[in-house]
Amino acid sequence: FNVNYSTQTYTDGSGYTTRFKNFDYGAGVFARVWPVDFLFIQFQPEVNWINSTQTGLNFSGSQSHTYKSTSFLGGVGYGGRLIGSHYSYFTLMIDLMNDINSPYRDQYNTATPVVRAGFGFYFKPSRRK
Prior knowledge:
Layout: E1 2-11, E2 17-28, E3 31-36, E4 39-56, E5 62-82, E6 86-95, E7 114-121
Antiparallel strand pairs: 1-2, 2-4, 3-4, 4-5, 5-6, 6-7
């Protein structure tokens, strides 16, 4: 499950100012393959819903759009794990699909890097030695 909120204010050369607000949420699954103890490959299909509002600050009008997109993130990561105890990771991925509405693509539909990091621990660690 993912949730993103972002705002951006843009002023052009003539002094016209626009504010963009985006609220994105989505769901997906991921798979990690660890060919060696510290390196993994990750694949992550996602479905995202984007609510975008554009407001002109020099006038009282605004526009809102809602749309859906699909993404398929793929990349490599570095991490450490002790099964039954804890883990940590750092992942660098890109969107392998060409959906123009993807939150992982810029205004020219070029894939932007997706960086994720995290750690975790088991609530009931393994007592085996």
